[in-house]
Amino acid sequence: GLAELGRFDESLRHWDRVLALAPAEELASFRLGRAEALARKGELAAAATEAERVVPGAQPIDVADAARVFALAVAAAKSGGGASEAARRPLAEVYAARAVGLLNAAADRG
Questions:
Q1: Average pLDDT, the chain
Q2: CB of 106 within 8 A of CB of 63?
């Protein structure tokens, strides 16, 4: 997608349009696509918030996709954005723990 090509703002605009038009039963999947674009852009708190919005009552595949968003956030937190390693490590650990927790929740849901 556009986010994978580094075209983050354009990707987010597309996700916003899709979300505005999406039927209710597809919102979770599209929110997670937007969350992935945010994570790739380095907007980790926004990505985590968007992913967490989907989790309550979500299908197992969507919970697993939320875990993927947190895994992307781990990678982004480790790479830094100018912050010191001491500042990055705790954030990466929080996101990693949440990714694992979500994978376990997805497995538990079937």
A1: 91
A2: yes
